[in-house]
Amino acid sequence: MRTRLAIRIHALLEKHLPERRVFLKSDSDTRFIRLRSETQLVAVAGVATMVAWTIVATAILLMDSIGSGNFREQARRDQATYQERLNVLSRERDARAEEALAAQARFNAALEQISAMQSELLKSENRRRELETGIEVIQTTLRATMKQREDARALLARLEQDTGEDAAAIETAASAPVQMTFMTEALLRTAQERDAIQADAKTALDQRDELELEIQLMRERSDQIFRQLEEAMAISVEPLDKMFRQAGMPTDRIIEEVRRGYSGVGGPLTPLSFSTRGEEPSPDEIRANNLLQQMDQLNLYRIAAEKAPFANPVKAAVRHTSGYGYRRDPKTGGRRMHNGSDFAGAHGTDIFATADGVVTHAGWQSGFGRLVKIKHAFGIETLYAHNTSIRVKVGQRVSRGDHIADMGSTGRSTGTHLHYEVHVNGTPVNPMTYIKAAKNVF
Fold first, then answer.
1. 64 CB-contact burial (10 Å; exposed 0-12 / middle 13-18 / buried 19+)
2. Over the chain, what is the mean pLDDT?
3. What is the phi-psi region of residue 425: left when phi exceeds 0, alpha when psi lies from -120 to 50, beta otherwise?
4. Which of 110, 123, 133, 422 is most buried by its number of CB atoms within 10 A?
5. Cβ contact 239:438 at 8 Å
6. Computed over its alpha carbons, how large is the radius of gyration of the chain?
7. Cis-peptide, bond into residue 268, ω within 30° of zero
């Protein structure tokens, strides 16, 4: 059966591909190569396969070339869009920085104005005390003068009465000129003293009116100063209070903790106080005490702001590549918690402390590379990882804005960047909460 099938196939091939011979002739001999139908079929199949493969490969290369051109064009468009977005973000960042500088300037100007107003308020208070003392002296003198005037009037009335009752005796005593002269001189002196007392009383009353007017003007001036100081304090304290609350920091506890840490007092200066001589304090004294309390609160806010990480760890142009929260791990591709914020920039970019504190770690730590840890007040700790070099030592006290390290890619890192973390009582929190809360204050 197989033989018959083979014979039929061979006959069919012979019909379309008859047997051929290729002669090879030399000088002395002639040979030939016989190409059977099956051999020709294999050769044709091989050639067809090569041609088909060449066509497919050529088509693939053309499609790949066209596709790669489209991909490059798309990549260029994406890069241009991304660059434009970076430029927009850079302009927004510069605008926010200018606003922060302007806010700082306004804040400093408000502090200077508050200081000048406080000095003027103290001068006004001293002047008011002097005027009150002068009024008391004038009123005492006026009361004594009026008493003397009343005594003189009573004496004059008695003398006039005595003169009326003894008129006859005076007429009969015409021969006694010495007594009459004495009586006339006494009456004259009494009249002169009465006129002098009346003039002094009028002068004292005029002085009292002038002093009352001056006191009224001083009170109006003091009220204006109080209003300006109260407005300045409200403008200065409100942004700081809002900043702490947006950062999730309880202001009452923060202020109390700062007050306990800055509770020392001493000489030679003494605290400002208003004596009330055992009486109820006046409205001006109550307002002045309230202003002094607000000034103290503003100063405590300023101290607390220096101790909390409200500043940005990088001042150069950087890109915020990753935020706080769960993300895809760049090494393993799995989902993993990211406890900080990443800022990508040029190699060696300066890194700054975001608050006052003490360096607790400055060296290598697995995964973080070269790491700096700073312990701050209020149970806060900041971490600066993947640095190429470290500029501080353990135990060193640093201030906000001090240069502590240079940006690098040490440890578990895919490129040059800063990994920045904030811990509160040992628990990681979002660092951008503090930076965003202070963007319109500092």
1. exposed
2. 76
3. left
4. 422
5. no
6. 51
7. yes
Q: Say if CB 316 and CB 439 are below 8 A apart.
A: no
- CATH 3.40.50.2300 for domain 313-327+337-437, yes or no, is no
First to last CA, the chain: 100
d(C-alpha 284, C-alpha 121), whole Å: 10
Total Cβ atoms within 10 A of residue 13: 17
* 160 pLDDT above the threshold of 70: no
Digit-coded pLDDT (tens) for 301-342: 778 778 888 889 998 888 888 888 887 766 666 677 888 999
Residue that the structure tokens 């090569």 belong to: 50
| Mean pLDDT calculated for residue range 354-371 | 93
| DSSP state for residue 273 in the 8-state scheme | -
Per-residue model confidence (pLDDT) at position 68: 65
- SS3 label, residue 347: coil
Residue 191 is encoded by which pair of tokens? Answer: 């009249």
Q: What share of the chain has pLDDT > 70, as a percent?
A: 72
**What gap in Å lies between CA 197 and CA 179, rounded to an integer?**
27
Q: What single string gives the DSSP state of each residue in 378-417?
A: TTEEEEEEEEEEE---TT-EE-TT-EEEEEB--SS-SSSE
User: Could you tell me the two tokens for 83?
Assistant: 């660059």
Give pLDDT, residue 404.
95
74-133, pLDDT tens digit by residue? Answer: 777 777 787 787 777 778 777 777 877 777 777 777 777 777 777 777 776 777 677 667
Does 276 have pLDDT greater than 60? Answer: no
Check: CB of residue 363 under 8 Å from CB of residue 405: no
By C-alpha distance, which of 435, 321, 429 is closest to 381? 429
Q: Which residues pair with 365 in a beta bridge?
A: 369
Locate the domains of the chain by residue range: 2-82, 107-260+283-307, 313-327+337-437
Task: Determine contact, residues 285/273, Cβ cutoff 8 Å.
Answer: no
